[in-house]
Amino acid sequence: MARLAMLIDTSQCVACRGCQVACKQWNDRQGWLYSRTRNRGSYENPPDLSPHTWTRIKFTEYEGPDGFRWLFLKEGCMHCGDPACVAVCPTGALKQHPRGLVTYERELCNGCGYCAQFCPFHIPRLEVVNPLTGEAKSSKCTFCQDRVTNGLLPACVKTCPARALDFGDRDEMIAKGQARVEALKARGYTQANLYGVDQVGGLGRLYVLIAPPEAYGLPAKPEYPALVSVWQKVVQPLGGAAIGATILGILGAFFLARRNIRMEEVK
Fold first, then answer.
1. Helices (H), 18-126
2. Which of 59, 81, 94, 137 has the greatest number of beta carbons closer than 10 A?
3. What is the rounded CA–CA span in Å between residue 204 and residue 80?
């Protein structure tokens, strides 16, 4: 089956944040939980992704060869072609659909936090659902898997008034993105580029950018974590043996500690 992908044209985005609202409405996500809305020195609202904010518009002030401009980036799960989160998930809560999207089944998640640790883009967020036991659940954009698998567009794409978002066959989205880049270069956007074609097995979230990826806070060359291979090929096969249990316990304690640190970072 052909892979699906979302094409995000940052040159068309007007930062209306209709995508954020549509995402929360369709997925029944709450508003910002920790404090009332206030100015934090940025136009961004909310200030970060969270268990209840699966996509948001990131604002960046950029001074480039073409002069000053605002850069807007729609953050969320990249739906990597080679997803590290799927590889390390011990319960199968995260899976790669035949059409490319990385799906999530909350009831299978044990809150280990490995997905948050290994994601090259640091996207998944953890939510403590039981303060007494520390039980947690992971959370991220699923490309509206319930809509997409029934032939509908993701809610954010459906609602975008600026038509900055498109969704469909990945090869078609790449072709559209490349054509858009050429059109932008012809208009004087000398740094225009298409991000996501080859990174991490090819991303399911493709960006038409008008500045280098680093200007948006995107890694130019995101890498598949080397520890994922160790986890798959060494640690997991040893799980049934005593030595495997020991190693699993040590690594489990390490990653649990890292998970707690990561949770502090994303609060």
1. 18-27, 84-88, 114-118
2. 94
3. 6
Please compute the mean of the pLDDT values over residues 57-82 and round it to a whole number: 93
244 and 254 together in one domain: yes
> pTM for this one?
0.85
Please give the pLDDT value at position 66: 75
Tokens describing residue 108: 């299978």
Has residue 133 got a pLDDT over 70?
yes
Would you give the DSSP letter of residue 154? Answer: -
What is the distance between the alpha carbons of residues 164 and 97, in angstroms, rounded to a whole number? 25
What range defines the domain where residue 256 resides? 225-267
- Whether 188 and 169 share a structural domain: yes
Q: Is 265 a residue whose pLDDT tops 70?
A: no
Neighbouring C-alpha atoms within 13 Å toward the C-beta of 97: 20
Residue owning tokens 């089956």: 1
